[in-house]
# Entry
Amino acid sequence: MDDFEPRIIGFLCNWCSYAGADLAGTSRLEMPPNLVPIKVMCSSRVDPEMITDAFLRGADGVLIAGCHPGDCHYDKGNYYARRRFAVLKKVVESLGLEADRLRLSWISASEGPRFRQVVEEFTEKIREIGPNPAGKETLL
Amino acid sequence: MISKTETLNSGNSILVSDESVQDSLRRILKHLLVTGQVDSVFAVRRTKQEGRFCYSLISDHELIDEVLPFYPVMPVQGAKALSELTTTETLHKPVAALLRPCEIRAFVETSKQSQGSLDNLFIISCTCPGVVPASRLLMEDRKKVLSEYGEYIRNACRACTDFVPEAHADMTVVIASDIPSENCRIFLHTEKAGIIADGLSSFTPEAGIPLKETVAGLFKIRQQNRENLLAETPAVKDGLDSLINLFSACINCRGCREACPLCHCVLCDYETARTQHSPELIRAEAKRRGAIRVPSGTIQFQLGRLMHISPSCVSCGQCSDVCPVDIPVSDIFTRAANLVQTTLNYEPGKSLDDDPPMSTYIEHELQDITD
# Structure
Protein backbone atom coordinates (compact mmCIF):
# COMPACT_ATOMS: atom_id res chain seq x y z
CA MET A 1 0.00 0.00 0.00
CA ASP A 2 2.97 2.33 -0.37
CA ASP A 3 1.41 4.03 -3.37
CA PHE A 4 -1.82 4.84 -1.50
CA GLU A 5 -2.73 8.49 -1.88
CA PRO A 6 -5.71 9.41 0.29
CA ARG A 7 -8.58 11.26 -1.31
CA ILE A 8 -10.15 13.59 1.19
CA ILE A 9 -13.24 15.69 0.67
CA GLY A 10 -13.23 19.00 2.56
CA PHE A 11 -16.42 20.96 3.10
CA LEU A 12 -15.17 24.46 3.91
CA CYS A 13 -17.39 27.26 5.10
CA ASN A 14 -17.35 30.37 2.94
CA TRP A 15 -16.69 32.87 5.69
CA CYS A 16 -13.91 31.35 7.76
CA SER A 17 -12.36 28.10 6.64
CA TYR A 18 -12.43 28.70 2.90
CA ALA A 19 -10.83 32.08 3.49
CA GLY A 20 -8.35 30.33 5.81
CA ALA A 21 -7.50 27.90 2.99
CA ASP A 22 -7.15 30.84 0.63
CA LEU A 23 -4.77 32.53 3.04
CA ALA A 24 -2.70 29.36 3.27
CA GLY A 25 -2.50 29.41 -0.52
CA THR A 26 -1.60 33.07 -0.94
CA SER A 27 0.96 32.67 1.84
CA ARG A 28 2.52 29.91 -0.25
CA LEU A 29 2.31 27.40 2.57
CA GLU A 30 3.16 23.91 1.38
CA MET A 31 0.71 21.15 2.19
CA PRO A 32 -0.37 17.74 0.87
CA PRO A 33 -2.53 17.93 -2.27
CA ASN A 34 -4.95 15.26 -1.05
CA LEU A 35 -7.82 17.50 0.02
CA VAL A 36 -10.52 18.32 -2.52
CA PRO A 37 -12.19 21.49 -1.22
CA ILE A 38 -15.90 22.13 -1.64
CA LYS A 39 -17.11 25.57 -0.64
CA VAL A 40 -20.35 25.72 1.35
CA MET A 41 -21.97 28.83 2.76
CA CYS A 42 -21.90 27.47 6.33
CA SER A 43 -20.73 24.30 8.08
CA SER A 44 -24.41 23.72 8.93
CA ARG A 45 -25.14 23.54 5.20
CA VAL A 46 -23.45 20.15 5.22
CA ASP A 47 -26.23 17.59 5.39
CA PRO A 48 -24.80 14.42 7.01
CA GLU A 49 -26.22 12.71 3.94
CA MET A 50 -23.55 14.48 1.84
CA ILE A 51 -20.88 12.98 4.07
CA THR A 52 -22.21 9.42 3.99
CA ASP A 53 -22.61 9.78 0.24
CA ALA A 54 -18.95 10.81 -0.14
CA PHE A 55 -17.97 7.98 2.19
CA LEU A 56 -19.93 5.29 0.35
CA ARG A 57 -18.62 6.56 -2.99
CA GLY A 58 -15.10 5.94 -1.76
CA ALA A 59 -13.77 9.13 -0.16
CA ASP A 60 -11.01 8.05 2.23
CA GLY A 61 -11.75 10.90 4.60
CA VAL A 62 -14.21 13.74 5.00
CA LEU A 63 -13.31 17.03 6.66
CA ILE A 64 -15.84 19.67 7.63
CA ALA A 65 -14.39 23.02 8.59
CA GLY A 66 -16.22 26.06 9.88
CA CYS A 67 -15.91 29.18 11.98
CA HIS A 68 -14.89 28.82 15.61
CA PRO A 69 -17.83 28.50 18.06
CA GLY A 70 -19.17 31.98 18.68
CA ASP A 71 -17.84 33.33 15.38
CA CYS A 72 -20.39 31.91 12.95
CA HIS A 73 -21.34 34.38 10.22
CA TYR A 74 -24.93 33.24 10.71
CA ASP A 75 -24.65 33.44 14.49
CA LYS A 76 -25.15 29.79 15.45
CA GLY A 77 -24.91 27.58 12.36
CA ASN A 78 -21.74 25.90 13.55
CA TYR A 79 -23.39 24.82 16.82
CA TYR A 80 -26.05 22.94 14.84
CA ALA A 81 -23.35 21.55 12.56
CA ARG A 82 -21.58 20.21 15.63
CA ARG A 83 -24.72 18.39 16.84
CA ARG A 84 -25.32 16.86 13.40
CA PHE A 85 -21.71 15.81 13.21
CA ALA A 86 -22.00 14.19 16.66
CA VAL A 87 -25.01 12.17 15.51
CA LEU A 88 -23.23 11.09 12.35
CA LYS A 89 -20.10 10.12 14.23
CA LYS A 90 -22.00 8.06 16.82
CA VAL A 91 -24.13 6.34 14.19
CA VAL A 92 -21.00 5.43 12.27
CA GLU A 93 -19.38 4.20 15.50
CA SER A 94 -22.42 2.11 16.43
CA LEU A 95 -22.13 0.34 13.08
CA GLY A 96 -18.46 -0.42 13.62
CA LEU A 97 -17.36 1.78 10.72
CA GLU A 98 -14.23 3.88 10.94
CA ALA A 99 -15.32 7.11 12.63
CA ASP A 100 -11.74 8.39 12.42
CA ARG A 101 -12.28 9.07 8.73
CA LEU A 102 -14.52 11.98 9.70
CA ARG A 103 -13.26 15.21 11.18
CA LEU A 104 -14.80 18.53 12.19
CA SER A 105 -12.35 21.39 12.65
CA TRP A 106 -12.76 25.08 13.42
CA ILE A 107 -10.50 27.19 11.22
CA SER A 108 -10.84 30.98 11.06
CA ALA A 109 -10.08 33.23 8.07
CA SER A 110 -6.81 34.33 9.62
CA GLU A 111 -5.58 30.80 10.40
CA GLY A 112 -3.72 29.89 7.20
CA PRO A 113 -1.06 27.92 9.10
CA ARG A 114 -3.73 26.10 11.08
CA PHE A 115 -5.45 25.09 7.85
CA ARG A 116 -2.20 23.62 6.63
CA GLN A 117 -1.69 21.80 9.94
CA VAL A 118 -5.19 20.28 9.85
CA VAL A 119 -4.71 19.10 6.25
CA GLU A 120 -1.30 17.63 7.07
CA GLU A 121 -2.49 15.85 10.21
CA PHE A 122 -5.66 14.50 8.65
CA THR A 123 -3.90 13.28 5.50
CA GLU A 124 -1.34 11.50 7.66
CA LYS A 125 -4.10 9.95 9.79
CA ILE A 126 -5.96 8.68 6.71
CA ARG A 127 -2.72 7.34 5.29
CA GLU A 128 -2.35 5.28 8.48
CA ILE A 129 -5.94 3.96 8.34
CA GLY A 130 -5.56 3.02 4.69
CA PRO A 131 -7.95 3.13 1.74
CA ASN A 132 -11.69 3.21 2.34
CA PRO A 133 -13.02 -0.27 1.51
CA ALA A 134 -16.37 1.25 0.48
CA GLY A 135 -14.69 2.64 -2.64
CA LYS A 136 -14.22 -0.82 -4.16
CA GLU A 137 -17.28 -2.51 -2.65
CA THR A 138 -19.59 -4.01 -5.26
CA LEU A 139 -22.51 -4.74 -2.93
CA LEU A 140 -23.34 -1.24 -1.76
CA MET B 1 -64.45 4.85 53.48
CA ILE B 2 -61.74 7.24 52.40
CA SER B 3 -62.14 9.03 49.11
CA LYS B 4 -60.10 7.76 46.23
CA THR B 5 -58.84 11.26 45.58
CA GLU B 6 -57.54 11.38 49.15
CA THR B 7 -55.58 8.17 48.73
CA LEU B 8 -54.15 9.65 45.57
CA ASN B 9 -52.80 12.60 47.48
CA SER B 10 -51.22 10.32 50.04
CA GLY B 11 -49.13 8.81 47.22
CA ASN B 12 -48.96 5.41 45.54
CA SER B 13 -52.68 5.19 45.36
CA ILE B 14 -54.07 2.15 43.62
CA LEU B 15 -57.46 0.83 42.74
CA VAL B 16 -58.13 -2.84 43.10
CA SER B 17 -60.84 -4.89 41.51
CA ASP B 18 -61.35 -8.64 41.62
CA GLU B 19 -62.25 -8.77 37.96
CA SER B 20 -59.67 -9.51 35.29
CA VAL B 21 -57.60 -6.70 33.80
CA GLN B 22 -59.60 -6.95 30.58
CA ASP B 23 -63.00 -6.76 32.28
CA SER B 24 -61.93 -4.01 34.67
CA LEU B 25 -60.63 -1.83 31.87
CA ARG B 26 -63.73 -2.36 29.76
CA ARG B 27 -65.81 -1.40 32.77
CA ILE B 28 -63.81 1.80 33.28
CA LEU B 29 -63.93 2.74 29.59
CA LYS B 30 -67.68 2.13 29.46
CA HIS B 31 -68.16 4.22 32.61
CA LEU B 32 -66.14 7.06 31.09
CA LEU B 33 -68.21 7.05 27.92
CA VAL B 34 -71.61 6.66 29.57
CA THR B 35 -71.00 9.43 32.10
CA GLY B 36 -69.66 11.67 29.35
CA GLN B 37 -66.29 12.13 31.01
CA VAL B 38 -64.71 11.29 27.72
CA ASP B 39 -66.08 11.71 24.24
CA SER B 40 -64.45 8.64 22.79
CA VAL B 41 -61.96 5.88 23.46
CA PHE B 42 -58.82 5.06 21.48
CA ALA B 43 -57.80 1.42 21.85
CA VAL B 44 -57.06 -1.86 20.11
CA ARG B 45 -60.29 -3.59 19.18
CA ARG B 46 -61.10 -6.93 17.61
CA THR B 47 -62.53 -7.03 14.12
CA LYS B 48 -65.26 -9.26 12.70
CA GLN B 49 -62.79 -11.85 11.56
CA GLU B 50 -61.67 -13.91 14.52
CA GLY B 51 -58.16 -13.25 15.72
CA ARG B 52 -57.81 -9.95 13.87
CA PHE B 53 -57.38 -6.58 15.51
CA CYS B 54 -56.99 -2.88 14.80
CA TYR B 55 -56.73 0.44 16.58
CA SER B 56 -60.04 2.30 16.69
CA LEU B 57 -61.56 5.53 17.89
CA ILE B 58 -64.75 4.40 19.60
CA SER B 59 -67.61 6.67 20.58
CA ASP B 60 -70.40 4.11 21.08
CA HIS B 61 -70.21 2.55 24.57
CA GLU B 62 -71.82 -0.64 23.30
CA LEU B 63 -68.72 -1.27 21.20
CA ILE B 64 -66.45 -1.21 24.24
CA ASP B 65 -67.04 -4.95 24.50
CA GLU B 66 -64.94 -5.29 21.36
CA VAL B 67 -61.97 -3.54 22.96
CA LEU B 68 -58.96 -5.76 23.61
CA PRO B 69 -57.21 -3.90 26.45
CA PHE B 70 -53.46 -4.29 26.13
CA TYR B 71 -53.75 -7.25 23.78
CA PRO B 72 -50.12 -8.33 23.29
CA VAL B 73 -49.70 -6.91 19.82
CA MET B 74 -49.08 -3.50 18.24
CA PRO B 75 -51.12 -3.33 15.01
CA VAL B 76 -49.54 0.04 14.28
CA GLN B 77 -47.57 2.24 16.64
CA GLY B 78 -50.23 4.05 18.68
CA ALA B 79 -48.35 7.33 18.36
CA LYS B 80 -48.57 7.11 14.59
CA ALA B 81 -52.33 6.57 14.73
CA LEU B 82 -52.89 9.31 17.31
CA SER B 83 -50.83 11.70 15.24
CA GLU B 84 -53.37 11.25 12.45
CA LEU B 85 -56.09 12.43 14.86
CA THR B 86 -54.28 15.41 16.32
CA THR B 87 -51.86 16.92 13.80
CA THR B 88 -54.12 19.38 12.01
CA GLU B 89 -56.21 20.22 15.09
CA THR B 90 -56.10 19.27 18.76
CA LEU B 91 -58.81 17.12 20.29
CA HIS B 92 -61.85 19.25 21.10
CA LYS B 93 -63.23 16.82 23.65
CA PRO B 94 -61.50 14.42 26.04
CA VAL B 95 -60.44 11.08 24.62
CA ALA B 96 -59.28 8.14 26.72
CA ALA B 97 -56.38 6.32 25.07
CA LEU B 98 -54.93 2.95 25.99
CA LEU B 99 -51.24 3.27 25.22
CA ARG B 100 -48.11 1.30 25.99
CA PRO B 101 -45.16 3.23 27.49
CA CYS B 102 -43.23 3.31 24.18
CA GLU B 103 -46.31 4.61 22.41
CA ILE B 104 -46.55 7.45 24.93
CA ARG B 105 -42.86 8.26 24.49
CA ALA B 106 -43.17 8.23 20.73
CA PHE B 107 -46.25 10.43 20.90
CA VAL B 108 -44.48 12.95 23.12
CA GLU B 109 -41.63 13.10 20.57
CA THR B 110 -44.14 13.37 17.74
CA SER B 111 -45.94 16.21 19.51
CA LYS B 112 -42.69 18.06 20.05
CA GLN B 113 -42.19 18.00 16.32
CA SER B 114 -45.66 19.53 15.83
CA GLN B 115 -47.10 16.27 14.51
CA GLY B 116 -49.66 15.76 17.25
CA SER B 117 -50.94 17.09 20.53
CA LEU B 118 -51.56 15.60 23.97
CA ASP B 119 -54.29 18.12 24.77
CA ASN B 120 -57.49 16.52 26.04
CA LEU B 121 -55.94 13.08 26.06
CA PHE B 122 -56.56 10.90 29.11
CA ILE B 123 -53.87 8.23 28.97
CA ILE B 124 -54.28 4.81 30.50
CA SER B 125 -51.01 2.89 30.27
CA CYS B 126 -49.60 -0.32 31.72
CA THR B 127 -46.46 -1.90 33.04
CA CYS B 128 -45.70 -3.45 29.70
CA PRO B 129 -44.77 -7.12 29.37
CA GLY B 130 -43.97 -6.59 25.67
CA VAL B 131 -45.80 -7.54 22.52
CA VAL B 132 -45.67 -10.35 20.00
CA PRO B 133 -44.84 -9.55 16.35
CA ALA B 134 -48.21 -9.16 14.62
CA SER B 135 -47.22 -11.57 11.86
CA ARG B 136 -46.63 -14.40 14.35
CA LEU B 137 -49.97 -13.86 16.03
CA LEU B 138 -51.68 -13.92 12.64
CA MET B 139 -49.77 -16.77 11.00
CA GLU B 140 -49.14 -19.20 13.84
CA ASP B 141 -51.38 -21.13 16.23
CA ARG B 142 -52.99 -18.20 18.01
CA LYS B 143 -53.92 -20.02 21.21
CA LYS B 144 -50.40 -21.30 21.65
CA VAL B 145 -48.86 -17.89 20.94
CA LEU B 146 -51.22 -16.18 23.40
CA SER B 147 -50.81 -18.69 26.20
CA GLU B 148 -47.01 -18.77 25.96
CA TYR B 149 -46.57 -15.26 24.70
CA GLY B 150 -43.56 -14.58 26.89
CA GLU B 151 -41.69 -16.88 24.50
CA TYR B 152 -42.74 -14.91 21.47
CA ILE B 153 -42.28 -11.28 22.50
CA ARG B 154 -40.08 -9.31 20.20
CA ASN B 155 -36.42 -8.46 20.76
CA ALA B 156 -37.06 -4.76 21.30
CA CYS B 157 -39.52 -5.54 24.12
CA ARG B 158 -37.28 -8.13 25.71
CA ALA B 159 -34.54 -5.52 25.99
CA CYS B 160 -36.83 -2.64 27.01
CA THR B 161 -36.07 -1.05 30.36
CA ASP B 162 -38.65 1.72 29.94
CA PHE B 163 -41.66 -0.52 30.37
CA VAL B 164 -43.15 1.57 33.19
CA PRO B 165 -44.65 4.86 32.01
CA GLU B 166 -42.56 7.70 33.45
CA ALA B 167 -44.79 10.66 32.78
CA HIS B 168 -47.88 11.68 30.86
CA ALA B 169 -49.87 8.60 31.91
CA ASP B 170 -52.93 9.32 34.07
CA MET B 171 -53.38 5.72 35.14
CA THR B 172 -51.12 2.68 34.99
CA VAL B 173 -52.55 -0.81 34.96
CA VAL B 174 -50.27 -3.44 36.41
CA ILE B 175 -49.70 -6.19 33.85
CA ALA B 176 -45.99 -7.03 34.06
CA SER B 177 -45.15 -7.41 37.73
CA ASP B 178 -42.96 -9.29 40.19
CA ILE B 179 -45.98 -9.79 42.43
CA PRO B 180 -48.60 -11.65 40.43
CA SER B 181 -52.16 -11.13 41.50
CA GLU B 182 -55.60 -12.33 40.51
CA ASN B 183 -56.85 -8.79 40.95
CA CYS B 184 -56.61 -5.89 38.60
CA ARG B 185 -54.45 -3.17 40.13
CA ILE B 186 -54.45 0.35 38.75
CA PHE B 187 -52.08 3.09 39.87
CA LEU B 188 -53.46 6.63 39.76
CA HIS B 189 -51.02 9.40 38.85
CA THR B 190 -53.06 12.53 38.27
CA GLU B 191 -55.93 14.42 39.83
CA LYS B 192 -58.03 13.66 36.75
CA ALA B 193 -57.50 9.97 37.43
CA GLY B 194 -58.49 10.48 41.07
CA ILE B 195 -61.74 12.18 40.13
CA ILE B 196 -62.59 9.42 37.68
CA ALA B 197 -61.73 6.80 40.28
CA ASP B 198 -64.09 8.41 42.77
CA GLY B 199 -66.98 7.70 40.44
CA LEU B 200 -66.13 4.04 39.99
CA SER B 201 -67.99 1.44 41.97
CA SER B 202 -66.63 -2.10 42.30
CA PHE B 203 -63.11 -0.76 42.79
CA THR B 204 -61.60 -0.32 46.21
CA PRO B 205 -58.85 2.18 46.89
CA GLU B 206 -55.67 1.04 48.57
CA ALA B 207 -52.35 2.55 49.39
CA GLY B 208 -49.80 0.33 47.71
CA ILE B 209 -46.04 0.17 47.44
CA PRO B 210 -44.46 2.42 44.82
CA LEU B 211 -45.05 1.25 41.25
CA LYS B 212 -41.36 0.82 40.53
CA GLU B 213 -40.93 -1.56 43.45
CA THR B 214 -43.48 -3.94 41.98
CA VAL B 215 -41.29 -4.43 38.91
CA ALA B 216 -37.76 -4.27 40.35
CA GLY B 217 -37.02 -7.92 39.52
CA LEU B 218 -38.26 -7.69 35.97
CA PHE B 219 -36.29 -4.47 35.53
CA LYS B 220 -33.09 -6.34 36.35
CA ILE B 221 -33.81 -9.02 33.77
CA ARG B 222 -34.63 -6.43 31.14
CA GLN B 223 -31.49 -4.48 31.97
CA GLN B 224 -29.38 -7.59 31.44
CA ASN B 225 -31.15 -8.26 28.13
CA ARG B 226 -30.51 -4.72 27.04
CA GLU B 227 -26.84 -4.95 27.90
CA ASN B 228 -26.60 -8.13 25.86
CA LEU B 229 -28.36 -6.51 22.93
CA LEU B 230 -26.03 -3.51 23.01
CA ALA B 231 -22.98 -5.75 23.24
CA GLU B 232 -24.00 -8.10 20.44
CA THR B 233 -23.03 -5.64 17.77
CA PRO B 234 -22.34 -7.74 14.71
CA ALA B 235 -20.96 -4.75 12.85
CA VAL B 236 -18.34 -3.84 15.40
CA LYS B 237 -15.99 -6.62 14.41
CA ASP B 238 -15.95 -6.33 10.66
CA GLY B 239 -17.32 -2.88 9.95
CA LEU B 240 -18.44 -2.43 6.39
CA ASP B 241 -18.75 -6.15 5.60
CA SER B 242 -21.17 -6.71 8.46
CA LEU B 243 -23.19 -3.68 7.48
CA ILE B 244 -23.48 -5.00 3.92
CA ASN B 245 -24.45 -8.43 5.19
CA LEU B 246 -27.07 -6.98 7.52
CA PHE B 247 -28.82 -5.09 4.74
CA SER B 248 -28.06 -7.48 1.88
CA ALA B 249 -31.62 -8.80 1.88
CA CYS B 250 -33.25 -5.34 1.93
CA ILE B 251 -35.80 -4.97 -0.85
CA ASN B 252 -36.15 -1.18 -0.49
CA CYS B 253 -39.80 -1.49 0.52
CA ARG B 254 -39.46 1.42 2.99
CA GLY B 255 -41.70 -0.49 5.40
CA CYS B 256 -39.48 0.50 8.33
CA ARG B 257 -40.03 4.14 7.48
CA GLU B 258 -43.80 3.75 7.18
CA ALA B 259 -44.06 1.89 10.47
CA CYS B 260 -41.84 4.29 12.38
CA PRO B 261 -43.86 6.69 14.56
CA LEU B 262 -41.14 9.33 14.21
CA CYS B 263 -40.68 9.23 10.44
CA HIS B 264 -43.36 11.69 9.44
CA CYS B 265 -42.05 13.78 6.54
CA VAL B 266 -44.74 14.12 3.89
CA LEU B 267 -42.06 13.92 1.22
CA CYS B 268 -39.18 11.77 2.39
CA ASP B 269 -35.71 12.94 1.39
CA TYR B 270 -35.12 9.51 -0.09
CA GLU B 271 -37.98 9.86 -2.56
CA THR B 272 -36.58 13.05 -4.04
CA ALA B 273 -34.38 13.44 -7.09
CA ARG B 274 -31.69 14.87 -4.83
CA THR B 275 -30.92 11.51 -3.28
CA GLN B 276 -31.85 9.13 -6.06
CA HIS B 277 -29.01 7.79 -8.14
CA SER B 278 -29.18 8.50 -11.83
CA PRO B 279 -28.80 5.59 -14.29
CA GLU B 280 -25.64 7.26 -15.50
CA LEU B 281 -24.14 7.23 -12.01
CA ILE B 282 -25.12 3.60 -11.42
CA ARG B 283 -23.51 2.59 -14.74
CA ALA B 284 -20.38 4.56 -13.95
CA GLU B 285 -20.07 3.06 -10.46
CA ALA B 286 -20.57 -0.45 -11.89
CA LYS B 287 -17.75 0.20 -14.36
CA ARG B 288 -15.43 1.60 -11.74
CA ARG B 289 -16.06 -1.08 -9.12
CA GLY B 290 -16.62 -4.03 -11.43
CA ALA B 291 -20.25 -4.41 -10.26
CA ILE B 292 -22.82 -2.58 -8.21
CA ARG B 293 -25.87 -3.76 -6.33
CA VAL B 294 -29.27 -2.71 -7.68
CA PRO B 295 -31.57 -1.30 -6.28
CA SER B 296 -28.86 1.12 -5.28
CA GLY B 297 -28.82 3.38 -2.27
CA THR B 298 -30.18 0.85 0.25
CA ILE B 299 -27.44 1.43 2.79
CA GLN B 300 -27.48 5.16 2.14
CA PHE B 301 -31.20 5.14 2.99
CA GLN B 302 -30.65 3.24 6.22
CA LEU B 303 -27.76 5.51 7.24
CA GLY B 304 -29.94 8.53 6.51
CA ARG B 305 -32.82 7.18 8.55
CA LEU B 306 -30.43 6.35 11.39
CA MET B 307 -29.19 9.94 11.42
CA HIS B 308 -32.69 11.40 11.28
CA ILE B 309 -34.31 9.15 13.86
CA SER B 310 -31.64 7.98 16.33
CA PRO B 311 -31.72 11.17 18.47
CA SER B 312 -35.43 10.57 19.19
CA CYS B 313 -35.79 6.79 18.69
CA VAL B 314 -37.85 5.21 21.49
CA SER B 315 -36.86 1.63 20.55
CA CYS B 316 -40.44 0.49 20.08
CA GLY B 317 -39.41 -2.29 17.70
CA GLN B 318 -42.07 -1.58 15.09
CA CYS B 319 -39.49 -1.36 12.26
CA SER B 320 -38.28 -4.91 12.90
CA ASP B 321 -41.87 -6.06 13.15
CA VAL B 322 -42.75 -4.99 9.64
CA CYS B 323 -39.51 -5.95 7.89
CA PRO B 324 -40.47 -8.59 5.29
CA VAL B 325 -36.92 -9.95 5.11
CA ASP B 326 -36.26 -10.08 8.88
CA ILE B 327 -33.50 -7.49 9.09
CA PRO B 328 -33.04 -6.66 12.81
CA VAL B 329 -33.64 -2.97 12.08
CA SER B 330 -34.76 -2.17 15.60
CA ASP B 331 -31.64 -3.71 17.18
CA ILE B 332 -29.47 -1.56 14.92
CA PHE B 333 -31.47 1.54 15.80
CA THR B 334 -31.42 0.78 19.52
CA ARG B 335 -27.63 0.52 19.49
CA ALA B 336 -27.21 3.75 17.53
CA ALA B 337 -29.82 5.55 19.63
CA ASN B 338 -28.06 4.48 22.81
CA LEU B 339 -24.80 6.10 21.72
CA VAL B 340 -26.37 9.18 20.14
CA GLN B 341 -28.75 9.92 23.01
CA THR B 342 -26.04 9.50 25.62
CA THR B 343 -23.83 11.88 23.66
CA LEU B 344 -26.57 14.49 23.28
CA ASN B 345 -27.75 13.86 26.84
CA TYR B 346 -31.32 13.46 25.64
CA GLU B 347 -34.08 11.13 26.77
CA PRO B 348 -36.82 10.85 24.17
CA GLY B 349 -40.40 11.01 25.39
CA LYS B 350 -39.50 12.19 28.85
CA SER B 351 -40.71 15.75 28.77
CA LEU B 352 -42.60 18.08 26.47
CA ASP B 353 -40.46 20.95 27.71
CA ASP B 354 -37.05 19.70 26.50
CA ASP B 355 -36.28 21.09 23.06
CA PRO B 356 -36.11 18.54 20.25
CA PRO B 357 -32.43 17.52 20.22
CA MET B 358 -31.61 18.68 16.71
CA SER B 359 -33.31 22.07 17.11
CA THR B 360 -31.14 23.15 19.98
CA TYR B 361 -27.56 23.20 21.21
CA ILE B 362 -25.51 24.02 24.27
CA GLU B 363 -22.67 26.45 23.82
CA HIS B 364 -19.95 24.39 25.45
CA GLU B 365 -20.63 20.81 24.52
CA LEU B 366 -19.24 17.99 22.37
CA GLN B 367 -15.78 19.50 22.49
CA ASP B 368 -14.10 16.11 22.35
CA ILE B 369 -15.37 15.41 18.83
CA THR B 370 -14.19 18.69 17.33
CA ASP B 371 -10.88 20.47 17.17
The mean pLDDT of chain A is 95. The interface with chain B takes residues 48-49, 52-53, 56-57, 69-70, 76, 79-80, 82-91, 93-98, 103-106, 118, 133-140 of chain A (CB under 8 Å). The longest helix of chain A spans residues 77-94.
